């Protein structure tokens, strides 16, 4: 059944004669910006905004990681502590608790990394 659905979907796609173009859906102008990606990722880490992950044309391991991040189940020190890990839940770079949000967005080191990514792109 899924095969037939996929065939119908593919048959409905109209290909143009021009060159393919990459379009970034998180910006109104279609261009990639780290600001738009950061803003999107900074949205609530849990919720129902994760379905796009499975439709994205990115490697499966990245999809799985982003899904884990959206569900806040990445094995951070905070998550491991909740699973009775005996270690210290503090971030390796600062004194805050290492949660997904902290590790990827609010930690001073994460902010520097995001800035470097922005400059590199
Ligand atoms: Zn930190």
From TrEMBL:
Annotated ranges, domain Reverse transcriptase zinc-binding: 32-114
Name of the protein: Reverse transcriptase zinc-binding domain-containing protein
InterPro entries in the record: RVT-Znf (IPR026960)
Xref: PANTHER family: PROTEIN, PUTATIVE-RELATED (PTHR36617), REVERSE TRANSCRIPTASE ZINC-BINDING DOMAIN-CONTAINING PROTEIN (PTHR36617:SF14)
